[in-house]
Structures are given as structure tokens and as C-alpha cells.
């Protein structure tokens, strides 16, 4: 454990937060908010950055707080972040780390903009060839639903065990956005499609899947209870027995959704 020092807000929209450590200036901890219009909307994603002795000749080492969940093809349950800018994925030219040109802010913005995208399915190597095809749309829609579920489960883990130095950020973010998260879940339960290529009506189903809605019914009451504990108002509407005919049970991390890597 290290003593955190000043928190820095990056980006005008206040969607990236960074904190350094007084006794380890080679370490940083960052939190970023998932973008609107993506399966990660209103989620919070935590990363640790280590500046090696060879920095900036070498890129920072980045660890993702995954809680064992595969929310994205580029974010592994082990914490590995697969990104050409970090030299952990193939790339060329401006895609790879340059000691003269690349920055820590560029790394964080790249993760937020290039990894946590509206269509994470196509981040898998070679899958962009299927973009716009009926099969690609179906698979992208299914992946987006699973990414959404895993983002909700990640929120639960963060609320239960916020990383040191970001307890306040986690609490403040979900107090501010918790009602929006629940409202989105309510919309999904009515059939609204999760954002992504599969939702454009071009050959795919226009509503979300029954399996996704069933999994949501298991997750939402637990998430609403966690939000209520930190002071989010209106959570009682999402408790057990309030979401329709399906029975509601506590979230089961082993079965609430299929692993995104399948």
C-alpha cells in the first residue's frame, strides 16, 4: 500500500481521474468513465500505471482492475491491457509508443476511446472484417449485451472494494450516475437495444435478447441495493419483485452472463 496524494482531473468532461502516490512517484492510479453510446456507459474503470526505469524510452506498464471479468477483448481478466501504444499489441507508425511523441494522457485517452468503444466485438483481431454483415451484427449485439452486464458487475465490485485512494471517486461517481444506470437498465428490460453495430436495424434484431433481460433481472436489484447504500434515491423501484414476473435472485458471478471471451 502507498500513500495517495493529489488527484488530477483530466479532460474537460471530467471523465478521467488520475492520482499519484507520495512515496512512489513511478506509480499512478487512474479511473475513467465509460462513454455514452457504448455498452460501458456510466461505468467506472480503474487502471494502475507503472513508469519503468527506462521510461519514456519504454511505455508505461498498465494494469486493469478486472475483478476477474473480461469486459473487452483488450482487457484481460489477468489485468493485462492489450494496446499497440503499450507495445502489447501489433502496430506501426503513430500506433506504437514513441519516446519523443507519446504521453501518459495519450495512453489513457486511447484506452477510453479505442478500447471502451461502442462496438467492442470488433476489437478482437480480425473481426473488423465482419463489420456490416448480418453475422457480424448478431455477434456484435451479443457481445455488447455481455459487456454491459459485466460493466454492471464491475460496478458492484468497485462499490464493495474500491481501490485505495479512489474510494471518494467511486462513491461520488455512482451517487451522480447511479440513477442513470438504473434508468438505462429499465429501458433494456423493456427491450431497448444495447448500443452498437447490432442495434442499427440493418439485418439484426431490433430489441435486446431475452437472455440479456433475464440476466439483468438478476443483477439490477443487487446493484440498486448497493446504490441505495451510498445515497442514490429512487432505488426502491428496482428491488426484488418490482421488475416483472421473473423471480429475482442475488447476482451469481459464475452464471449471470457468459464469459465475453467465449
In words, what does this structure look like?
The protein is an alpha+beta fold and about 260 residues long. Helices cover about 30% and strands about 15% of the residues. The protein contains 4 helices and 5 strands. The chain has helices at about 105-115, 135-160, 165-190, 210-230, and strands spanning about 5-10, 15-20, 25-35, 45-50, 60-65. A 5-stranded antiparallel sheet has the order 1-2-3-4-5. Helix 2 packs parallel to helix 4 and helix 3 (about 165-190) packs antiparallel against helix 4. The chain is flat. The protein starts with a strand and ends in a 33-residue tail after the last helix. This is Os05g0153132 protein. It comes from Oryza sativa subsp. japonica (Rice).
Which labels suit this protein?
about 260 residues, alpha+beta, Ubiquitin Conjugating Enzyme, five-stranded antiparallel β-sheet, 5 strands, about 30% helix, flat, disordered C terminus, ubl conjugation pathway, UBQ-conjugating_enzyme/RWD, transferase
Amino acid at each position: 500500500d502507498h500513500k495517495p496524494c493529489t488527484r488530477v482531473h483530466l479532460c474537460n468532461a471530467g471523465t478521467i481521474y488520475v492520482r499519484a502516490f507520495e512515496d512512489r512517484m513511478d506509480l499512478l492510479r487512474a479511473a475513467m468513465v465509460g462513454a455514452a453510446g457504448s455498452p460501458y456507459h456510466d461505468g467506472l474503470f480503474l487502471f494502475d500505471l507503472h513508469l519503468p526505469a527506462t521510461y519514456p524510452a519504454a511505455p508505461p506498464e498498465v494494469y486493469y482492475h478486472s475483478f476477474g471479468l473480461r469486459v473487452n477483448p483488450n482487457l484481460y481478466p489477468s489485468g493485462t491491457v492489450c494496446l499497440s501504444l503499450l507495445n502489447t499489441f501489433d502496430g506501426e507508425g503513430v500506433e506504437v509508443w514513441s519516446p519523443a511523441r507519446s504521453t501518459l494522457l495519450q495512453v489513457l485517452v486511447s484506452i477510453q476511446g479505442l478500447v471502451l468503444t461502442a462496438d467492442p466485438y470488433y476489437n478482437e483481431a480480425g473481426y473488423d472484417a465482419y463489420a456490416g454483415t448480418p453475422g457480424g451484427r448478431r455477434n456484435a449485439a451479443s457481445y455488447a449485451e455481455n459487456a454491459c452486464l459485466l460493466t454492471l458487475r464491475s460496478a458492484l465490485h468497485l462499490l464493495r472494494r474500491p481501490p485505495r485512494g479512489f474510494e471518494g471517486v467511486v462513491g461520488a461517481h455512482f451517487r451522480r450516475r447511479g440513477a442513470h444506470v438504473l434508468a438505462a437498465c429499465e429501458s433494456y428490460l423493456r427491450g431497448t437495444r444495447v448500443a452498437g453495430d447490432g442495434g442499427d436495424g440493418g439485418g439484426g434484431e431490433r430489441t435486446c435478447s431475452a437472455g440479456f433481460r433475464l440476466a439483468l433481472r438478476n443483477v439490477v436489484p443487487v446493484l440498486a441495493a448497493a446504490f441505495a447504500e451510498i445515497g442514490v434515491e429512487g432505488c426502491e423501484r428496482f428491488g426484488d419483485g418490482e421488475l416483472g414476473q421473473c423471480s429475482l435472485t442475488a447476482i451469481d458471478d459464475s452464471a449471470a452472463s457468459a464469459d465475453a471471451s467465449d
